[in-house]
Amino acid sequence: MSDLKALKMSILGYGGMAQYHFERLSKLGIIEITGVFDTDEKRQEAARNKKLEAYPSVEALFSDVKTDAVLIATPNDWHREYAVAAAKAGKHIICEKPAAMSASEFDDMTEAAQRYGVILAVHQNRRWDKDYLAMREIAESGVLGKIYRIDSFVCGANGIPGGWRKTAKAGGGMMLDWGVHLIDQIFNFKRENPTSLYCRYSKALGFDVDDGFAAKFEYADGLTVNVRVDTNTFAKLPRWIIYGRDGTAVIEDWDLNGKIILPVYGSEVEIVGIEAGNGFTKTMAYRPHSSVTERAIPTPSPDCDAFYKNFVEAAHGKEKPCISTESVRKVLRVMELCKLSDKENTVIKSELANL
Ligand SMILES: NC(=O)c1ccc[n+]([C@@H]2O[C@H](COP(=O)([O-])OP(=O)(O)OC[C@H]3O[C@@H](n4cnc5c(N)ncnc54)[C@H](O)[C@@H]3O)[C@@H](O)[C@H]2O)c1
Question: What total number of domains does the chain contain?
Answer without folding.
Answer: 2
